[in-house]
Design goal:
The relative contact order is 0.17. The model has no long low-confidence stretch (mean pLDDT 98). This protein has 356 residues and is of the alpha/beta class. Helix 4 links the parallel strand 3 and strand 4. Helix 2 packs across helix 6. The chain has 9 helices and 14 strands. The strands form 4 sheets. The chain has a 7-stranded mixed beta sheet, sandwiched between helices. The longest helix is centred in the last third of the chain and has 21 residues. It folds into 2 domains: 237 residues, Aspartate Aminotransferase, domain 2 (3-Layer(aba) Sandwich), CATH 3.40.640; 101 residues, Aspartate Aminotransferase, domain 1. It is 35% helix and 17% strand. The structure holds pyridoxal-5'-phosphate (PLP). The site of pyridoxal-5'-phosphate (PLP) has 11 residues, from helix 3.
Length: 356
């Protein structure tokens, strides 16, 4: 039976990328060595690093003056690296969910954190709109896609102060105006590659402005100076991510990926809105294209476990919702084909017929 991987992360990758990676695990570029045993200082791997950064910049149209870093530690380490590197006294955070809150918690260790707005009272079912950004704060931090709650900003905000974004779960799903940000970061394990790699797009001129000491490994300047080679970078995950970037380019680039993301999300949300058994959990204007959350409609709550079982038997993997929302979450990252969405819709329609 064909399986469709709706896992929230680590998550689906393009089949071609997995096949190419497996070849490199056996023999990296005809070297007679596995990708797992080559030196990160070898000429072949330096070429991989250079090409990965160049493609990152090309696909996201990153302006001059930015560096793309390839680090370990996950997006969670960035929650503390960001204030370490950019916060002198005061910052502003938009609280749109679990990850935003975790980022905010780390910043509080460095000074005053203004929560510009929060949708916590409604279990993060929408993105707050009308809020004031303090102009004396060092930066505004946002989480562009809230993986757990299924809300997404989908466009770059206008801000009077520099922005920093956690784009872990929507990077490469839409064009981004990078010039509005001094830093964009995320874990690779959704739209980019396997777990173990953290990408950081950083504006060079914004680094080095704080007066406190920054531990060497947590200082962006260290990694800018050493081309992400200060310590051993996650070689395997970087190579796989390069293959994904090549795949994105071959598909027609980020604009084409965005067109597909819209098409897939529209298909699934249309079914959620039509099917009497299900209801979406998020304000329509803030619906995420990447993580689509829905629960059983009023009167059908007792069918949740039955649908979970039904869908699993039909090959749907990873649709169980996060415990803080319940119900279902279909993560529809870039590598998810339209057929996968259609297969889930078919499941929902068949299940509806069984429960007239
Ligand atoms: N930020 C967002 C939006 C996420 O979805 C996640 C993980 O799912 C994280 C941060 C944490 O990432 P990591 O596990 O790489 O630390």
């Amino acid at each position: 039976m064909k399986k469709y991987n709706f896992n929230p992360g680590p998550s689906i990758l393009p089949r071609e990328v997995i096949e190419e990676t497996s070849k490199a695990v056996l023999d990296f570029k005809g070297s007679g060595l596995s990708l797992l045993e080559i030196s990160h200082r070898s000429k072949d791997f330096q070429a991989v690093m250079d090409e990965t950064e160049a493609l990152f910049k090309e696909l996201l149209d990153i302006p001059e003056g930015y560096t793309v870093l390839f680090l370990g530690g996950g997006a969670s380490t960035q929650f503390c690296m960001v204030p370490y590197n950019f916060m002198e006294k005061k910052t502003a955070y938009l609280n749109t969910g679990t990850w935003a809150k975790k980022a905010m918690k780390e910043a509080k260790a460095f000074g005053e954190v203004v929560e510009v707005a929060s949708s916590a009272d409604s279990n993060y079912s929408f993105i707050p709109k009308d809020f004031t950004i303090p102009t004396d704060a060092d930066y505004l931090h946002i989480t562009s896609n809230n993986t757990i709650f299924g809300t997404e900003l989908r466009k770059d905000l206008d801000s009077p102060i520099p922005m920093i974004a956690d784009m872990s779960s929507d990077i490469f799903s839409r064009p981004v105006d990078v010039s509005k940000y001094i830093c964009i970061y995320g874990g690779a394990q959704k739209n980019l590659g396997p777990a173990g790699l953290t990408f950081v797009i950083v504006k060079n001129s914004a680094v080095g402005k704080v007066s406190h000491y920054i531990p060497t490994m947590l200082n962006y300047q260290t990694h800018i100076d050493k081309g992400s080679m200060f310590n051993t970078p996650p070689v395997f995950a970087i190579y796989t991510s390069l293959l994904t970037l090549k795949w994105i380019k071959a598909q027609g680039g980020v604009k084409e990926i965005e067109r597909r993301a819209k098409e897939k999300a529209d298909m699934l949300y249309t079914e959620i809105d039509r099917n009497k058994l299900f209801v979406g959990t998020v304000a329509k204007e803030d619906r995420s294209r990447m993580n689509i959350c829905f629960v059983m409609a009023k009167g059908y709550e007792t069918l949740e476990a039955d649908f979970q079982k039904f869908a699993t038997e039909k090959g749907m993997v990873g649709i169980k919702g996060h415990r803080s929302v319940g119900g279902f979450r279909a993560s529809c990252y870039n590598a998810m084909p339209k057929e996968g969405i259609q297969a889930l819709i078919d499941c929902m329609q068949e299940f509806e017929k069984l429960h007239k």
